[in-house]
Amino acid sequence: MTQHQLDARRCGLIPGEHEPEFFAKHLSAYHFLKLAARGKSILEVGFGDGYGMNYLLGTAAHVTGVDIAPDNISLASSKYPHRDLQFIHFDGYRLPFADNHFDLVCSFQVIEHIPEARMTEWLNEVRRVLKPGGAFYVSTLNLKNAQKPGCVYEKNIDHEKEFFAWELEALLGQVFPSTR
Length: 180
What we know:
By secondary structure, this protein is of the alpha/beta class. The protein has helices at residues 3-9, 20-37, 51-56, 70-79, 119-129, 143-146, 165-173, and strands spanning 41-45, 62-67, 85-89, 102-108, 130-139.
């Protein structure tokens, strides 16, 4: 198996394999979400090793995660065994849940990996599983901050689409009734 094939079987941020500052930036999204998570059922789309789901444990009523990388399921399950955490493999587009199932859905540092032609489909699936009045929390790099004056910017090879804030807001506005 090539390294690329191995990487496809397990992807996402693994805390011990990255610099603490990089990890802290990623964890900050979960810290922000934690304020809204109290007593809620949460779905995370693209959970990596599950550290974020584990961080929400104790605040949220239940946290479910789906990921396309099959090895992430066993990694997260062994690292964070808890009855209120559930790790599920899925195809990346069709969420295996009934309509109106979750209070909150989050997807941090994932949307940039979705093929641009399928982003609206992906977002509609997120909206489908959200309960009425539910909220979707999403994060990705802001291209405005990533592009430095006087430097040539190279898009991350693993990213399908990188966004300026206004582009992401416009995309989300096509699917969700309000964005902020």
